[in-house]
Amino acid sequence: MKDHQKAPESQEISTAPQAVEQSDAPLEGVTGMEKVKEMAQNTASQDLKGGGAQQDDGQTQQAQDDGLKDDRELMKEHLLKNAPAEPEMRKVVEKVLLKKKDQLESDIKKLKRKKNYHGLSLAIMQLRQVVYQLKNLAQASYEKLKITWLNVVHKFA
After folding, report:
1. Residue 139 pLDDT exceeds 50
2. Distance of CA 126 to CAs 38, 101, 108, Å?
């Protein structure tokens, strides 16, 4: 064993927790292993004091959420600025809705054969919503059409 690892016999080994002093001063003349030990003790003492890292995670998550909201708003503004003319927009929305309607009708036939009544009920509900959207598309003003276009084509809720 090395000399610095031996505990002096005259001193008793204490298992009681000891206060760790935090210092932001750079560690001078400390070996690599002692630096790691010092950093681990600092981290442990911060966790015992109240979990400062958890507060930072919450702030980071909030900042990310705000960033995502800002990104979505910017994307929405960009899409509306570069939106096609009204007749073309109606055609695009109608095309997407008709494709969805055909898919749902196909799914309904499969679900009837399999006798999956819960799935059949859900598919019929979705089909009714698509037909309702097609009906509203024919009567919608340009402003309503923009909102529908964002919801249907670009999946903006």
Report:
1. yes
2. 61, 9, 10
For the record, the structure tokens of 11 come out as 């001193």
DSSP state of 97: H
The residues, any chain, with a CB within 8 Å of residue 126's CB and separated by 6 or more, are 104
Rounded Cα gap, residues 88 and 19, in angstroms: 72
Q: Rounded to the nearest 5 degrees, what angle is found at the Cα of 128, between the Cα atoms of 147 and 131?
A: 55
Tell me how many degrees the CA angle 11-15-19 measures, rounded to the nearest 5.
95
Residue 115: phi, psi to the nearest 5?
A: 60, 40
SS3 67: helix
Average pLDDT, the chain: 76
Distance of CA 96 to the CA centre of its chain: 27
| pLDDT at 23 (0 to 100) | 46
> DSSP state, 13?
P
Q: What is the pLDDT of residue 128?
A: 97
Query: If you write DSSP's letter for every residue of 105-157 in order, what string do you get?
Result: HHHHHHHHHHT-HHHHHHHHHHHHHHHHHHHHHHH--HHHHHHHHHHHTS---
